UniProtKB/TrEMBL annotation, chain A:
It comes from Thermaerobacillus caldiproteolyticus. This is Fe-S cluster assembly protein SufD. Residues 110-173 form the SUF system FeS cluster assembly SufBD N-terminal domain. Belongs to the iron-sulfur cluster assembly SufBD family. InterPro entries: Fe-S_cluster_assembly_SufBD, SUF_FeS_clus_asmbl_SufBD_core, SUF_FeS_clus_asmbl_SufBD_sf, SUF_FeS_clus_asmbl_SufD, SufBD_N. It holds the Pfam family SUFBD_core. The lineage of its organism: Bacteria, Bacillati, Bacillota, Bacilli, Bacillales. Residues 177-410 form the SUF system FeS cluster assembly SufBD core domain. GO terms for biological process: iron-sulfur cluster assembly.
UniProtKB/TrEMBL annotation, chain B:
One of its GO terms (molecular function) is ATP binding. The lineage of its organism: Bacteria, Bacillati, Bacillota, Bacilli, Bacillales. InterPro entries: AAA+_ATPase, ABC_transporter-like_ATP-bd, ABC_transporter-like_CS, FeS-cluster_ATPase_SufC, P-loop_NTPase. It comes from Thermaerobacillus caldiproteolyticus. This is Fe-S cluster assembly ATP-binding protein. Gene3D superfamilies: P-loop containing nucleotide triphosphate hydrolases (3.40.50.300). CDD domains: ABC_FeS_Assembly. It comes from the Bacteria. It holds the Pfam family ABC_tran. Keywords: ATP-binding, Nucleotide-binding. Residues 4-246 form the ABC transporter domain. Belongs to the ABC transporter superfamily. Ycf16 family. SMART domains: AAA. SUPFAM superfamilies: P-loop containing nucleoside triphosphate hydrolases.
Amino acid sequence: MAIETKLPFDQEYVRSFSEGSGEPSWLLDLRLQALAKAEELPLPKPDKTKIDQWNFTEFANHVVQSAPISSLEELPEAVKALIDLNEEVKNLYVQRDNTPAYISLSENLKEKGVIFTDIFTAVREHSELLQKYLMKDGVKIDEHRLTALHAALLNGGVFVYVPKNVEIDTPLQAVYIQESKDAALFNHVIVVAEDNSRVVYVENYISTMETSNAVVNIVAEVFANTNARVFFAAVDNLAKGTTTYVNRRGIAGRDGRIEWALGLMNDGNTVSENITRLIGDGSYGDTKTVVVGRGEQVQNFTTSVIHYGKHTEGHILKHGVVKDSATSIFNGIGKIEHGASKSNAQQESRVLMLSEKARGDANPILLIDEDDVMAGHAASVGRVDPIQLYYLMSRGIPRVEAERLIIHGFLAPVVNEIPIEGVKKQLIEVIERKVR
Amino acid sequence: MAVLTIKDLHVSVEGKEILKGVNLEVKGGEIHAIMGPNGTGKSTLSSAIMGHPKYEVTKGSITLDGQDVLEMEVDERARAGLFLAMQYPSEISGVTNADFLRAAINARLGEGNEISLMKFIRKLDEKMEFLEMNSDMAHRYLNEGFSGGEKKRNEILQLMMLEPKIAILDEIDSGLDIDALKIVSKGVNEMRSSDFGCLIITHYQRLLNYITPDYVHVMMQGRIVKSGGPELAQRLEAEGYDWIKKELGIEEETVEQEA
């Protein structure tokens, strides 16, 4: 494993990194612009969480060279468990730190024009297509320091492109492995579903070792064009020593549908932002998030659905469990812009507190600039309901097991949606481990 | 043969005494009905036997086969053989009826003796069919979105799956139409055996047309004020409670007003 150490990152570094990767000039320009912005723009300001002391920028190595693998058998057990090794045709991408380690896409999908490749290859082979989507209409480089830094230092990720009228039945799976204790990952995921197409994408972020002072900065941009459907499932499971910024953004065109199922199980401090913009008339966004906070970790989760088109429908569901001395802030925002008549914005945020010192906060917000709409929200913060416990125990189930059932049930809305059995099983196990 | 023995039971809720000395013995093979107007302490009795966290026993004893029930946690009471079909069963989102029932059965059997999945499914299918329940009820979340009648039927399903020694049915008939009432009664009658004792709490005689009790007790002012056979229920149906109040010189039967 060769390690490059060129820090602090400056223009020179970014230029040489970009050229070293054989990137087109538009991307180098984007990086350099972004780097300049990163120096001047402030950090994001997630509501009710102070992050100015968090480490988003200090790390030992921007790039860690890992070797590709020749067989999936070489992967660590925890990673293998996520993958159906017996499946003959795999649509799978595995990334070790920054290194694309394994990629496989069925011939059938290749023939249909589907692109599923690591971001570096995509930059070289599909430059124009990528340029159209990379940090343009989804997440912009100048939103704040972390999006700028992301663009400047982007060093991993995947590109998914589904042409018009192509419907993919089996999920495309990506696994991002953090296997160096002080790695920096600036991972970029783009999913484009052209008109009338359909795709399911499932990703895992997993640490295979304890980390210290590691930085992960993730941006995912999802485009569901006219009448396209994207289902995006993610399980984030990064170690305690990793500070994570993750921004997942969806843009839905006319009658487009974007559904998210996010299991946010990081053990370190995390800022997560998930915004779905319903641009086209009749578009639909559904976002389900479950979270477990434990130890001392501080997490902030902002979920937003913004309605621009008429007859748009948005649903937000967030269920969080907080234990030990952890803090979890849940901001849910349903926003209906002027002109988005006949739209419907619904949200539900619930926080379950498992200990005295845990802190949880659910802030449902509705911002409505149009008269002819429907909107609703429900929010609650509390302990495991003693009457529910009594009911289960009255059937002979011991208290600990009864609590476990209630908690798993509370987090089921996302677990049940995960379309890959190994990933679902792993999420259940992670929950089990975290709430114990 | 199981024996549930309640002696001089006094129970308070939030500092207010509701039960003021209840004495009752229910044996395996017997069906007892406790009747009485609203607010006389019937449901308090059932909650206190099961160990509801809001109810505090201030005096008296409850034993099951000589074991001190009051010393037991709620789940221990259930594993000892008690069951309460609740008036307002909880809804538990994300936990399927089937998973819940399996967890409950396995809690009784203990580690290493768990029921096999096949055996469990066979038993569940059989009982659900007996209670004329739609098979999708097994995979729905526990009581979530169930109608009142479905919830009651689901309580009886649990009764039949768990096969307790002594069951308490707390107003299992409230909110049921006649068809549902017949099915619920069919379930309880199916359980009847020398190993099964039952305490039915109701304020309508209607249920007792389908489940014939061996003993009928009337509760007023937090005590059992009269006991008899099935004919007592019929007289209550025909004449109401006034004659008992007159006979015993009770002006106000409820607990609340009486203090």
